[in-house]
Amino acid sequence: MNVREAVLTVDETSYLEQGPSLIERAVRTAAAAAADADGVDRDARFPHKAFDVAREQKLLGVMVPVEFGGLSASIHDVTDICYTLGRACASTAMIYAMHQTKVACVIRHGHGIPWMETMMRRVARDQWLLASSTTEGQNGGNIRASAAAVDHAGDTVSLMRDATVISYGAEADGLVTIARRATDAAASDQVLLALAKDDYSLKRTLGWETLGMRGTCSTGFELKVDCPADRVFPESYDKIHAQTMTPFAHLCWSSVWAGIAAAAVTRAQAFIRKAARSSGGQMPPAAAHFTAAKMSLAKLRALIAANIDAFARVEHDERALASLDFQSSITLLKVQASELAVETVMHAMRTAGLAGYRNDGEFTMGRHLRDVLSSPIMINNDRILANAATSTLMSGVPTSLRD
What we know:
The chain is an alpha+beta fold. Helix content is 53%, strand content 12%. Strand 2 and strand 3 (156-166) form a beta hairpin. The relative contact order is 0.11.
């Protein structure tokens, strides 16, 4: 189902009849995010106003199954919300995308585990915001190798992690993090932990003074964990990574970047229309860049939509999710989408020329450009392409357009 045409259960129908649809809730949240976006960017502060509205609209728990108090929203729903928020405030949208990726891990790998089901209920009922701690020390975003290890002591576990980036960590109600399975485990033998705020402490070690995505507040922390052992997922992280973490992250992030690109194209379109009106219908010299921006945005949206549909078809088929073709496609989506998003915003800015380059006019695109430039370096594209070289070499070349 998508945001506009949700397939509802009986329980969901009675709930939604009393309130707005998911897309209406997203639009209301986006309005609050847009009104505060410049201040969030300028001050590098968490978008509290946007998330106050998101909580009021019950957007944080939409993907939680109905049986645990949510709405069983699909990947189509969540990515549509990410796109809507991305058009308003990139930081708000990226925080939402990262949160939903962690929620997806809890939902898809936590059934039958009392603590994980409790967390689902808290996300749905109390609108818990879940942060992510995957970057560690000097690993440069290589989340398939961990230095810190879980230390087991009876029914409890402990962990000390040099978390160089935890986006919105100080604002979150819980945290999902990766670690080596045990002190004698290999770096790639990892587990995932889902933690409540009482399970850990944070000591700030790094600041967040960046070009864009400033409101994500992705500061560094020393993460210290002392908690019950049931916070550790029984399944190994390699399975969670392939089946859930990577697909949801890349689909949601890409949808955010597409939203940023769409916002820039909207401003470019407004500039062209105003310029044409003031010159008696004469198109400005840079109108060709607007056509290029529209074409690039169309390619970006089509690419993301195709990957969303592909994931939705196989999301419960472990064999299909593990296939070389699917893993290559969903991994490279991140590279392709990020590059197209940057290209689109650049074309939009060149459409508006100085009016887009300025920071003090109605057609300014400085924030959009700075935010979207984070996309190729968020899990660096060069690392992804290098790691994907072998698998793409082994993958066959399609013999028809519909393969």
